Amino acid sequence: xxxxxxxxxxxxYYAEAxxxxxxxxxxxxxxxxxxxxxSVSQAYLDTHIRVMFIGKETNGWxxxxxxxxERPDGIDIAKTRYEDQHARGTGNSEFLRQWKRFADAxxxxxxxxxxxxxxxxMDWHRPRRGYSRTSIGHSAHLFNFSVxxxxxxxxxLKPDLIIFGCGHKYDRALKAVLPKRRAVKVEPxxxxxxxxxxxECFRTFHPDAxxxxxxxxxxxxxxxxxxxASKVFAERLPMQNASV
Length: 244
Known about the structure:
This protein is an alpha/beta fold. The protein is about 40% helix and about 15% strand.
């Protein structure tokens, strides 16, 4: 699969879906962010194990939704913002550090080979809420748009492994995205390992969540995910990563 061909399908979907959804978004142009759109890397398409790391949503992303719709090249700008993130350091973000750990474990250290995605495609700016821009409770319109988009992305990009780093409060979105599931292991509200349509899936806390909200340190859940997935995909891991 070539990046150009896959991205063309994805861009076509984004253009049609965003145009169809625009009337319902107009009342929210000043409170929702521009959409979180993927720019697929050739490294992801070529890797031994396709990993998708799904968070919840961004906190301020590429301007407001109204400005996005005003730009004829809005989709290209959103994709450039996504690509720019791959070139940045991890800084103090535990989410970005965990993204790098998945790349080290499953993609030879190439962070661009691990697809970053979000369950909600826009974040919700409410000044009194401070930094957090959680949007799962914003509207049925945003929820349905996001679920449909993530479903399309998963079907097109065919990940082998999906890690939902979003916490149990996003389970209704997760279940809508992947309605067919078979549980493998459940640690209530903390770690959920399941399979869906041949995809190995894990849901746990967001990496930047506070440890006091979890029964054990959150890094331990992520290490367990890496250890478990490494065993599941052992035959497909490059030799240098097989012991990670």
